[in-house]
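Hi V.,

Quick status before I head out on leave. The structure for the redesign project is tokenized and pasted below; the design run finished overnight.
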């Protein structure tokens, strides 16, 4: 009788397993001899996995890494937006982590809803979704490590093995024309076949110096030639009328292929006016954080290119829903991404699965920051002649060296 009861319990446990946070679809991988499951021996043990700690690590490189630890000896790593790392770290420690410690890390959707709706009144455009993003990424990393599969497999499979990148060159509002041209030439020499010029006007809007912007973008085009794809990011710096005039001029005379956030990000009706008036595709999305905001960006602003940022828009779980919106409305996905290690790795997985058009993806090239952060990984991402390969390792595919990480922790 005891033997029968044990067998029935195993069957029930297996049945319950299929309802745990997406892990059931990869049951067979659990018994892979190369799995790094710690002390977990069978599906029934998944009910006993618990989150034991959520640790925000503020780094000297200006980054915020998240380590989510479990009682199975498996640690997931994630990253939050660097917009205000101390505020995000405080948000995690005081408001979000207490909601999920002691819970099963495989209940990813359930945990996401607890984190998001449980802290909803703390603000859904900024620190709250950015903080959730780092934890959510770490939860997906845990799932991948348990079943010994890369994130792109968990998301349904990749369309390509490597991703072409474009060099995102910023601070145009504070640099001379010659400085921006030198940075553009340097990027081309490093293998980039596409560039984006960012003005980074920030709050110094509107229409501060459009002629300066034109001199930069036109001189870059003249210098790098017509074979390099070129985009322009006004960083919300134009009025509607200036945005339309500049958009037409840059498209007709310079052949730009990407015109990003030409006016204030909150003026959806104004963005729609620009979309209607120019032929160059209009991009936006780095200031949107949830599927509901992207719904409005699609329906009201009517942009052509959607730019969710996985370290801002509440992580992989929400980004997948945003990708579904993009697909339903036939929009192009070109995610915003400025972080060179964890953020970049997660983005590579995501776009390899969901970006149907083989357009170049953003890489904010900072040799100093990249070099500092790459040292904390045993297998850092390698930029190769304009491309990054989609990581193959379990989870997000980066193996963290905590001893090295401690050296740059604040």
């Amino acid at each position: 009788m005891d033997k029968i009861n044990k067998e029935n319990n195993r069957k029930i446990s297996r049945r319950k397993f299929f309802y745990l946070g997406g892990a059931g679809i990869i049951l067979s991988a659990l018994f892979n001899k190369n799995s790094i499951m710690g002390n977990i021996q069978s599906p029934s043990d998944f009910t006993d996995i618990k989150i034991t700690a959520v640790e925000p690590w503020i780094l000297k490189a200006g980054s915020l890494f998240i380590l989510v630890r479990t009682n199975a000896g498996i640690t997931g790593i994630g990253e939050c937006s660097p917009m205000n790392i101390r505020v995000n770290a405080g948000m995690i420690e005081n408001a979000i982590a207490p909601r999920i410690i002691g819970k099963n890390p495989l209940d990813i959707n359930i945990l996401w809803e607890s984190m998001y709706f449980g802290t909803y009144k703390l603000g859904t455009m900024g620190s709250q979704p950015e903080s959730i993003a780092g934890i959510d990424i770490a939860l997906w990393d845990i799932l991948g490590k348990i079943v010994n599969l890369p994130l792109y497999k968990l998301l349904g499979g990749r369309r390509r093995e490597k991703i072409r990148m474009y060099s995102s060159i910023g601070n145009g509002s504070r640099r001379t024309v010659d400085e921006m041209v030198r940075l553009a030439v340097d990027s081309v020499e490093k293998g980039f076949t596409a560039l984006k010029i960012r003005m980074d006007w920030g709050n110094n809007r509107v229409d501060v110096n459009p002629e300066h912007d034109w001199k930069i973008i036109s001189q870059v085009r003249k210098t790098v030639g017509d074979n390099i794809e070129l985009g322009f990011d006004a960083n919300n710096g134009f009025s509607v009328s200036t945005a339309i005039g500049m958009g037409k001029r840059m498209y007709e005379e310079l052949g730009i292929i990407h015109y990003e956030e030409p006016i204030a990000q909150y003026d959806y009706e104004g963005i729609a006016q620009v979309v209607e008036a120019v032929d160059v595709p209009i991009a936006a999305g780095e200031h949107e954080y949830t599927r509901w905001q992207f719904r409005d960006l699609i329906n009201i602003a009517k942009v052509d290119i959607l730019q969710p940022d996985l370290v801002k828009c509440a992580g992989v779980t929400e980004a997948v829903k945003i990708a579904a919106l993009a697909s339903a409305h036939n929009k192009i996905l070109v995610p915003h991404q400025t972080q060179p290690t964890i953020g970049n790795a997660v983005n590579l997985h995501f776009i390899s699965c969901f970006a149907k058009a083989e357009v170049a993806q953003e890489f904010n090239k900072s040799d100093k920051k990249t070099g500092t952060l790459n040292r904390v990984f045993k297998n850092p991402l390698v930029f190769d002649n304009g491309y990054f390969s989609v990581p193959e390792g379990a989870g997000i595919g980066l193996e963290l060296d905590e001893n090295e990480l401690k050296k740059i922790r604040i």
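Above is the designed sequence. The chain has 14 helices and twelve strands.

G. will cover questions while I'm gone.

Best,
W.
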